[in-house]
Amino acid sequence: MGGIEEPTEQVEMDPVMSPTLTDDQWERLVAAGTPEEVAVGDHVFRTGDSGYDLIVIESGEVEIVRDALRWVGEVVITTMGPRTFAGELGLLNGQGAFLTARVTKPGRVHRVTRAALRTLMNEDDEVCDVILHALWARRESLRTGPAAMTLKFLGTTTSSDFLALRRFAERLDLVHKAVALPPGGLEALDTHEFTLDDLPVAFIQGETLLRATPGLVAERLGLSYQAQADEIVDLVVVGGGPAGLAAAIYGASEGLSTVLLDAVAPGGQAAATSRIENFLGFPFGVSGGDLIGQAILQALKFGVRVYAPCEAVGLTRVGPDLLDVALSDGRLIRARSTIVTSGAAYRRLELDRWEDFERSGVYYAATPLELRQVQNKPVVVVGGANSAGQAALYLSANGSPVHLVVRGNDLGARMSSYLADRLADDPRVQVHTSSNVVGLDGDGTLESVRIDTVGEVDAHGLFCFIGATPATSWLPTLDRDAEGFIRTGTDVGIQTLEQWQGLGRREPLPFETSAPRVFAAGDVRRGSMKRVAAAVGEGSSAVASVHRALAY
Predict the structure, then answer these.
(1) DSSP-derived 3-state class of residue 431
(2) What's the whole-model pTM score?
(3) Quick count: other Cβ atoms within 10 Å of Cβ 424?
(4) In terms of DSSP H, where are the helices of 172-285?
(5) For residues 310 and 224, is the Cβ–Cβ distance under 8 A?
């Protein structure tokens, strides 16, 4: 399908992917499992298994196989022998198996369930580090080999729906392959069984999913929230940006059973930032994608259950000590506490044809995904804060001439001085202060932008960074300011006797909202500093208040 050839050589397992365990490490790992004798041809796990185990191989041999798909045959990825373990990162995030493990030499294995694996990783830092490094390295290796064909996306280069699929898969670090067609280019495929109206298409283990969305794909992969019987979690974090990830990591690392939800994919606006230069510990800067990727891995390490896309649409108190978080699909998560880190939604320019070009030229992020659509082509960036400045520098450094449109008359008013100075010195960036974008034009895709102070300029992409509106409409009963930001702590202006009586008449704790045991952190909170480092600090600090609230 699509005329794509794939490598067939087996992966050579390097020392990170297949670490040499000491005798003590080996004994501790084996002790966490249940022994099982296996014969040639047995499958210790198979593609599609939703609750497969880590397989610790004491003797014998197991081969890891990418099953045959409709258009390509079976591929043996690698073969594993004694004193190794079979499994990859999906063991930690709940993803169903997308490869098969088949016995080729008889022997003895030990099955370590997901629950037992999490217990081992929580209690044994040394073994945890060995396993985590191996699972992560295997995931990265699989992303570039034949295993990637188990999840394949097909769409056009100008489709925002196709871009959303790719962003979802990349932020969750899913093993996948994306095939981008030129606009109207189904004829570029060798064979096809669908029309342009069916795009984007996802192929999941060779099965076709037409008009695919991140939510539909997540459901098929086992990444959607599934409650266990009568489950009550200690903490639900709503929003997977820096504040939410920090809250989830600190909560789980301190013993709270923690669920993290995001309506799109973890990362928030930080993941859309090409370069963060003022974050502690990164003197040469770090991309938002890299920072968020490591944070997600850290969350999985501590046992956070991460679900995306998974949108919270309501919050209801159930008695004095419990909350129900309602999801858009009708499911409920019952929790003892909640931290709202839902951030803010991107603001849009009120222009004719804006919605037309949102699918083919308007972007709210500047990362390698968006760069591929506009590289070496002229673009317009709108905004006067750090995110706009970072985007302009990133795009210009990768070959795109940039018009930076700033409504105010002083570039340094809302932007860090180091960014403003670098923009002024960059010959590929033209800064237009006291200016506005007033029109968009193009035939199917964006081709030009009109700026009120200079007229029409060529532009194959418009990058919009004009702020955001807090994502709080799903929380109508919480005390918010006139712009919708949530009041917390001593800033709370509305308290009802009914909500707070029985709590020792205590006042809201730091980061606690007008509803007991409901907290807010990051961009969604009134008075927060809109910086990555500040969001991380707020998310982790809110957990301290959660512990205090749960102790009442």
Answers:
(1) strand
(2) 0.80
(3) 11
(4) 214-221, 242-253, 268-271
(5) yes
